[in-house]
Structure formats: C-alpha cells, structure tokens
Structures
1.
Amino acid sequence: MKTKLIYFSTATLIALTSANIISSQASASENNAEAGEDTAYTYAEGMAPVVNPPLPKKIEFAGQTIDFDRMDMYERLDRELSQMCYMHSSTMLMLKRANRFFPVMAPILKRNGVPEDLVYLACIESSLNQRAYSPAKAAGLWQFLASTGKEYGLEVNDYVDERYNIEKATAAAARYLKSAYNKYGNWESAMASYNGGQRRISTELDSQLADSAFDLYLVEETSRYPFRVYAAKALMENPSKYGFHLKPDQFYPQLDYTEVNVSSTIDDLAAWAKSHGTTYALLREFNPWIRAKSLPVTAGKTYTIKVPKPESLSRSANPLTKKHLYNPRWAD
C-alpha cells in the first residue's frame, strides 16, 4: 500500500500547478522560519515540488524493442519526457486532438505498409495542430515543405494545399517513411531522415561508419528527433502515469460529415457553404486544404469536400465516454 501511495503521488505531482501546495509542507516552512532555521530545502509558499517523470527501461516501437540502458540513450529519452511532461498545455491539447486524428491516420499508415506507431511522429511535427505552419514554411499535421509535398503527390497552390489534407498528407508521409525504412533498415534512421533529410542521414551513416541514427553525431534537432517520438508514445499510451488526468468528455470527438464530390469550379465558397447548411468558417475547419474563398476545378479534376453534419456539432447531444476514445486508457 505504501508503495502504491508513493507512486500515485509522484505521477500526480507532475501535473500540479504553482497554485497547489501540500499544507504540511507550508506549515513546516513557517515553523522553520520562526525558529530561524535554514529554510533552503523547504518549498516556498505557493510552490509545488518538481518530480522527475518515470522512464521506461525499454519501449516496443514499430516491431522493435528499444533499450534505454545505454547511458546516452537514457539521457536523451529523459530530456524529451521531462520537457513533454512539463509543457502541460501543449501536451494536454495533443492528447485531446489525438482522439480525433489517430483513428484517421493509423489505418492509412497501416494500409501503406507503415507501422501504426508512426502516428507519434506527427505529434512531434505539429502537436496535431492541423493548421500548423513553421518558420521554414512546412505545413500541416505532417509538416511537409511545398517541394517535398509535390514530390510525394500533393497538390500545393494558392487555392488547394493538400499538405493540410489529413488523408492525403498521411498517405504521402507513409510513402516517404516506407522508402526511408527500405533504405536504412531501421525506423530510427527513417525518422531522423524525416527531420534531417535522407541525403544528410545517408552521408553521415557512411562517413561515421554507423548503421543506425542512434550512433550518429548529428545537429541537435535531428539527434533528438527519434527520442521525442519515443517520449510521445510512452506518455500517450498511459497519460495518468505522467500526471495527465482527463475525463472522456474532455477529448475532441472525430469529425462527422457528409462528403460532396465537386467537379466544377466554385466561385463563392461562402455561398456554397450556406447552400449546404453550414458556414464558410466550418467548411475551412473541416477542409483545411481549401486555401481561398473560391475553388477552381480544372477539367477532369474532382475534389471531395467534407460538409459537417449539424447534429454532430452539439457536444451535449453527443457526449463522449471511454468507449468513444481511440485509447480508453487516456481517460481516468
């Protein structure tokens, strides 16, 4: 029982804010101050203790067992898990969004011959923010540059940007990752190449006489990249272990919509949306690949537009329970 109580406390304290404090600690601080004792090791009023998150010794990822016994491997995972645990708001939002996007992305990866665990790569790329746009001009959940997106079959122009199309961008990411895996023979190198480029990883593997990105000296961002993916999996498979306690109805539901195939130009998408019982704002939310207020359609081309079902937009009419979650362990 004692062991269980200590474990629960450790996990819970990770998520405490600075407004929380254990009353006995506050009383001890006051007593020590009155007695003139050294109070350097007591918690100041309003402060909570900082707890190191528990680190797994091994992680099963994409059919591989990743062992973190090696000193540098342990410390690299420790860095990423520590940062992810204490970036409370962004990590919590990523968890909520995962319930919406993982059910769409995971089957697409699987159909394209890529393990479902690679969904965690998108978490690192964009925190599952479908509008994500980086200073380097990478866009969408999978953060494709325009040139790379076009190389992998995505349409990118002023009206249509399929880097924001979750289905098409996920399929493109799967093609890239599968190609990289076939080249390197392991997922850590394939993931490192997603960040640093295949040319760089191939060059460094050759010049450093290595077989895996684990053994490469790389720029810090690329060196950290696979470990950030592992940290995301460790935390998101069991959030409460790391201090994240959410209720089922706090997650974001999957989008419910009707698909409309469009094979002719739409001059006014706001008017089109209204005629289909929705708003331009919601149309853009459900179809972030639409980039303007009109949609030119060339001969022989067809776009599929998602039109939200009005009845699905009410949270009170569609409450989430554990059975609606992609992973029931996400919620308390």
2.
Amino acid sequence: MTAKGRAGAKNKTFAPPAPDRKKNEAKISHMKKMYLDVLIADDIRTDIEQNKYPENSKLPSEKELCEMYHVQKMTIRSSLQILKDEGRIYSKNKSGYYVQKRRIVKNLRYFCSTTSLVESMGKENESLLLKFRKIPCDKRISQRMKINIGTDLYCLERLRKVDNAPVSLEWSYIIAEYFPGLETFDLSGRSLYRIYEEEYQVNMDRAEMQLSVVFADAEEAALLEVAKGDALIKEEGRTYDYTNRFVEYTETFMRIDRFQFIK
C-alpha cells in the first residue's frame, strides 16, 4: 500500500459486544445450583460433628430436608450422596439415611498411638490379646525389620475394639532385648506404648508407615466381623524411640469404614 493509501485509510475500533444480561444471570443461577449441594452437605456435616445428629441416628427425610433448605429433591439427594461417599452416613432400604460411626482419624504427619486417638474421641477402647509368644526372627520379618534372622522377638496379635465393636487386627514384632520380661504385664488392660514408657523408660518418637488395600481372609473376616474378601486397610509400620533406635515392626489390618487417613 502507498503512503497516500495508508493516509486515506480509516481507522477502525472494535468494541466488545454488549453483555447479555439474561444469559449471565442464567449462568450464575446455574452455578449457584451446582454448589448448593456442596453447601448443604457441609452444613449437615457440621451438624454431625457437633453431635446434633449422633452416631446411628436417623437424618431428617428427603422431604424434610427439602423444606429445611428450600431446594428441590435432586439437590438434597446430591448432598446426601456426597456425605455417603465420605463415609459420614449410610442408607437403609426404605428407611432413610443414618449417621455412620465416627472414624478414627490418623494424621500421617504426626505420630500418635491409636489408643490415644480413641481416648481423645471419648470412646471406649479395648485391646484383646489373642497371641503372645517369643519367636526367632524368620526370613520374611527379617527383610521388613532389616535385622538378622534368628533375633529374638516378641510377637503379639491383638484385636482392637472401640465401643465393643472390632475395628482392627494388630500384629506387633518387638525386639525382645529392649523389653525383658514384657510377658509379665497385662497387655490387654494397658497401652503397649505406655508400658514401654512407664516400665522401661522407652518413649516412642516417630514411625514410618506404608498403606495398602488388602482383602480379608477367613480368619480376619471372622475377627473383624466383615465378609470374607471385603477390603481392609493394611498399615505396615516401623517405630523408633527418641534415640532413633528401631524398636518394633507392626502389621495392622483395619476396617475401611472405621479409619480415615489425612495429611
């Protein structure tokens, strides 16, 4: 284009199109509806945590919740499904929704015994001793504990109950040298870690944990009162004391509906 042509050309400005108010209002209304179920689920969750709806109590019906929150039934059903997926509530056929038992929350960032966690929830904690014997370390445990085959270990199998219901099956492999005479203590009536602290002045400091999902065999199913083949959380742990000394290796099989892990 020549200089004359450029000079004669008209400059054009492009203004953005005028906003479509009705379209924007419809979009905002749709977004509000999308998040209503989340907000209602959060409100019901708070009521559960504050014990407005105690464990095993029935929630208001879908119709009652619709009237309480002034929303349609589909929104309430979506809210209840959120809480159901979280394990907060469960449904009974033709009966409604009920509050699930509180899960034992284990924080992966901090070391705390399960006994202390249960007690902090105000729950009754019971640990039934199923087996207790001294054994030489075999090849499988040697690989996990990274100690020599033949090392003397205390081997404990315990069933943990919370409010008289089984929640976990726990195996502990303890280096016997550090706790001589451990078999003389009542391991059902006292926390194992408290025995370490009070009787041996050994304080637990940290643990390394690995989590996986396994499926209950016949023995685990019978003890934990689940169906054979049901999913369980398996926690493998290596526990150290305040001197950074490796003390025990544990394998714990937990009911998936009774535990929650957070960071």
3.
Amino acid sequence: MDKTRLSNKQITGILISGIIGVSACISLSSKDSKKAEDERPVVSSMTVSPPLPAAVAFCGRTIDLTRYHMHESFDRELSSFTYFHSTTLLLIKRANRYFPLIEPILKKYGIPDDFKYLAVIESHLDPRVSSPARAVGMWQFLEGTGRQYGLTITPTVDERCHVEKATAAACKYLKDAYNKYGDWINVAASYNTGMGRISSELTQQGVDSAFDLWLVEETTRYPYRIMAIKQIFENPYRYGFVLTTRDLYKPIKTKGISVSADIANLAVFAQKYGITYADLKRFNPWLRDRRLITGGKSYVLQIPEEDKLYYKQPNTYLHDSRWVVN
C-alpha cells in the first residue's frame, strides 16, 4: 500500500475541518451582512429632497430664492407638489385640455402667461369645484366678486363655472390689482386675500413686497405655490413625472348652440342633440339646474361631437412638449 495515501480518518478529519471553517466564514459573513443591513437597510423606494433652484422666473422677473425664508418656503411647496403624485399628474393631464382655452384670454388682457398657474393651484383645473368658503369655479370667485367682474349668477346659471368667462373676469381683477401695485407678486397675494388686506399690511409693516409681509399662512404660501407648480410643469421629468402624449387629456371638439329662450328640461334638450344630460352638464358646468332661465339673455351651450367622446385612438394632441418624454 502507498504510504503517501491518506487514511480514511485523515480524510474525514480534513473534511470536518473544512466544513467547520466554511460554517464559521458564513456565520461571520451573515453577522457582517446583518450589521450592514441595520446600518444601511435595503429599501424598496427612496424619498429624496427635490432639486431646488437658486432663482426662478415669474412674470418676466427673476425671483432670488437664496434668502432663508424664501428658500424654505419654496422648498416646502416644491416638495409638496413633487410627492403629491396622483394629483400633480392629474394637473398636467388636465392642463392639456384647459391651457389652450386660458392662455389666449390672458394674452388678450395683457396678463402674464404665468398666471395660468394660479388657476392650477386654486381649483386643480376643475371648473365645477366649490370651496368651504363658497368660492366657485376654476378661478374660485366668491359670489360678490364674481358679479363685480361681470359674471352672471342666478338660480339656473353660474358663470363662475364657465371657463372662458371666468378667466376673463379673473383677468379684469388681476389688471385692477396690477394698476394698484405695479408688482405681480403683490397681485398674486391679493388674489388670495384681497387688495384691501395686502394694501393695509404693506403700509402697516413698511415694506413693498408681499414676500416681506407677515401674513396668515395660506396667503404667505400662495405666491410660492404658484411658482413651485410652474417649476414642475416646466420640468416634470426632473421631479419624477413621466408622461407620454397618450396620457394627456385631449381637448374635445364641440359646437355652440345659441339660446335666448328658456329651456324647461335640459335632459330633453340634450337628447335632441344626441347626448346625455350628464354630457351637457360636463361641457356646460355653468348650468346650475335641470332647467335654464335666460332672463332675456342669450347663452351658448357647447354640444360635444359624438365621435370625439372616445379614446378609441390614443390622444395625439400635445399642448406643451416639455410635459412628455416621447
């Protein structure tokens, strides 16, 4: 027998030693892994602070955000919109339908285009929304202010919910406020709390800008919210919002039907034009009742075209190329 061969006992001993050694290594490795996991756990997702610019453009002016209260206020609103995922996505989708209606009216009245974002934060671009304070519509007019700026409000009509007419009324207010202040930030703050309050506080606190005022929290946040949602709309991918053109809501073509006589039953009227009562209300959210009392005025009711009411083909209308990745 060859003496260089190992005995069975020796082989067994070597195998046992190896197993013990490997087990020890695994044990040490497991402990190290557990320690590393405790110190830096593996997570399925991360919440990171959104990138914050040092300055932003608003209404043709560069707003420096480096002062502590402005930096922190803008950060608060940008973080809120960035992580308010479903709502912020919905805002961009709706804007594809409503910005084409709003922008030309702002331009007609000489109001900076950036004020379309005021409608975004006021109502989430929902023309039917109503607040606890009874402000109504996309531009959130109180009844008295709505009437002051030319909107008809009756038991069967509420033009605060009429997108184009309410936008025109908002422009008149904004123009009046700018004539008073000559500063669009003060104008924006006044839209939230009223010109009387802003004028009084500017005088009492001895400053020129709403950025420097001590105000109730809602009004303090207001201009920063407008600027923050603008930042996301202009750079959605940077803040984690990934959309394609097909995700956006398409404008739906309608034809206008002028009426000057009362309509006793709007459901019957809708059926006459081949649509449902619900469709009539959706495309004319200013109709408040099941009937329309014209009171001697003429109104134009929008009737959607039947073949445009479907997404049988993906949406192809893109209002702003910055919103999508395709």
